[in-house]
Write a structure and sequence with these properties.
5-stranded mixed beta sheet; mainly alpha; about 1000 residues; 12 strands; elongated; Beta Polymerase, domain 2; 41 helices; about 60% helix; Four Helix Bundle (Hemerythrin (Met), subunit A)
Amino acid sequence: MVKPPAARSAVPGPGRLGLVEPTAPAELRDLGWVGEDSVELLWSLSRAANADLALRTLVRMKDGLGDGWEALDKALRTDKALRGRLFGLLGASSAFGDHLVADPALWTTLAGDVTLPTREEANARMLASVDAHPEEGVHPEANLYRAAVTGSDAVAALRKSYRDQLMLLAAVDLAATVENEPVLPYQTVGRQLSDLADAALNAALAVAVATVCPEAPCPVRLAVIAMGKCGARELNYVSDVDVVFVAEPADTIASRIAGELMRIGSTAFFDVDAALRPEGKRGELVRTLESHVTYYKRWAKTWEFQALLKARPMIGDLELGRQYVEALSPMVWTASEREDFVPEVQAMRRRVEEMVPPELRERELKLGRGSLRDVEFAVQLLQLVHGRADEALHVQSTIDALTALAARGYVGRDDAANLAASYEFLRLLEHRLQLQKLRRTHTLPPADDEEALRWLARAAHMRPDGSKDALGVLNAEIKRNAHRVRRLHAKLFYRPLLESVARIDKDALRLSPDAAIRQLAALGYTAPENALGHLTALTSGASRKGRIQALLLPTLLEFLGDTPDPDAGLLAYRRLSDAMNDQTWFLRLLRDEASVAERLMTVLGSSAYVPDLLIKAPDVVRLFADSPSCPRLLESKPEDVARGILTASARHDDPARAIAAARSLRRYELARIASADILGMLDVPGVCRALSSVWAAVLNSALTSVINASEKELGEPAPATFTVIGMGRLGGGELGYGSDADVLFVCEPREGVDETVAVKWANGVADKVRSLLGAPSTDPPLEVDTGLRPEGRSGPVVRTLASYEAYYAQWAQAWEIQALLRAHHVAGDADLGLRFLHMIDKTRYPEGGVSEQAVREIRRIKARVDSERLPRGADPATHTKLGRGGLADIEWTVQLIQLRHAHDIESLHNTSTLETLDAIGAAELLSEADVELLRDAWITATKARNCLVLVRGKPTDQLPGSGRVLSAVAQIAGWGSDDAGEFLDHYLRVTRRAKAVVERVFGG
């Protein structure tokens, strides 16, 4: 702000006054404010938020006042309070400037000893504007008035009276920006605005009654219930006024009066919104009290009870309004006991956050992070949680509720005071932004619009501070208060909980055990007693680790609260913390890297698969930090990982120790891959490639170590070369978390070695490899499956290359030929593996394609698989592997096309389903649309199948129809946990469309 020098009477120039418009000198001369007798006036003008706007409006007022300007000029020179109100108003609001120009004589209402009207005085002024008098012959508590003025004249009169009173309040509110007038407390402004809104709608109701019921008396009892900010008496300058109507009887007349009230109010004052009524905008506008009660008992959702926290009888039949509040209030305070309370509240909060476009989130005062809604949401949730046991919390306004929560020991007094201060600061900025043009807005100007931000700073009483001008002070305060709200939002819920279990400060606030359990239950913990035990264990003792945990846990618990299973996540975090008790870097990393803490809690609260892996491979947590180039979880490449596993196992001569080393690195890699998957960093093909590479590397390590040990024991080279051919998903590079490794074992005797000896040795190697990999372990299993070998499970486990060639040439059945389409070398002797693949090419890619007889056999086998292998009780619509449009449908269809066309189209010589689909599309064997439908279904089903393993911790193929598991799967799959139904609908839609293609292509 520009301040007058301590002892100077010289007339300041326009620049010193903050006047930048080139017309300013002429405008000052027009007003006669150029002499030394105008110095004090000019310095007051310089302190207006926008001095040019104030000066320009004064010139317009002078033109309108004519001879009356002399009286205003004289009053401004002698009445300091008038200068503060008028200059403050004109510099901060172009809308009120226009209002004064239209009726410049209104300046007299700002002069002298101004007092704000009481609720009764505001009501009387509004009623007088339409000559309204009490309705006679109605119920004693009806509180109805009948207006003598109706129609467009009434709307104009109401608008003028409302705007006059609103202007007076704004002028008093803004006076402190210019002169040292007392700052009007935020709560006073909110109450005044709410009382004025009540008065305005009461007058509008009088007009509506006269319009709908020209003959007295009005035959209905009508109560208008204020909701939202108006109900809590904390209204904004420009805001919707939320209302609910109750009538006896709720007939056509009552509906017409309510509709007319909304029309008049929305035209004359502000939007009158009845969307919070039962069933929202689809519901009846007016209901009886009995109808309201019935709805809330049977059908209301949690958010509707949360909205009732602020319900207040407003106008009309106040006795009926009190009956409404008394009937519904008990339901409000039992809402937190509802089974769906937590998920509904969390879903509502997420929907509110998602309403804000990403580019506006840092500028949004109402709905962004660290915003007004964060404060209101936290306070209301705590009221609902503890209010059923404590009537002292049955208050409506946010500040009153914070005060009550602190007084009753549910939040710390300092926390409540700081949160209240930040809330009032954000509301002040909101009010100033709305006053500028009297438009509803909650968005700060862009960071590069310094002129608009500087205006806001001056309008919000920002004074220069040391090296910062008003703009610098504003920016610093916005950042400080948003950060404080975000920090206290977590602390408000969790700090009292932790101080109840951690003896950090003997004077600290501590919730009672019952209150702590209530609060944990409301935060999403289904076993709050267990959760409280985990918090006690984590923060126990006076050790430094316990103190650090107590500092970390508010943030960690908030992150956990947004996960599908906070109970399991907290238990997993406790187990991980216990395992890391001697590792100082762990808590330090969580403390210093907020992204690590958030990602770790997301993983722990989403998956039963990952926690055990992290406990055994805790260094993966270090990868949760960001690196400059890409997320560290993605820095490892599959080929580098495979090489590392082989190198680590090669350091050990003993096969058991070699495989233990390979298992350790596999554990690390599974934890890394699954974490990246849960956090949305890896797509489905990337996950499949990484898992397949790890599996192949472990298999290769096991085979190499067993052969080396055998050669050492024999004292000579092995009697045969040995290779492993991957089949199924392993061969296609498309393994999932729960997949076995389908393989063929192939050997070839070295020169001069008897085939019987070579095969016997190779069988011993195969048995040893399978035994070591399949040994009992708490790790995800390493099952080696040889069921796709010639003759199936009745055939020999190991065959020579020549034996395979002879068998496939003479005896290969249709299913065996089909299985070979995914055969690929994964371990052992590379030359032998390559020769095996070349040998089977003539079988799996038959000249001229497979016969029609073979096609019929494949279709018969598929039909048998569909009917016999689907588990009893499974839902074929949602079984990811064998269900309609699931993985088997897609893969069998792709493989049938390969069998028919691969001999002629070399690009179909591919073991990957997705890559083969691309080749099918390129060769125009299917339309692009069909290929896309099959691809989409395969990716969707694979993603769902992988997510099921991540969530449940064990292989499963059946998607549930509802419940927590489905919500968790939906969240990991990239849908919100409250969008589980939409995720399932998407899955059914995608697979249904794919099934239509399968029936046409595979079924002929």
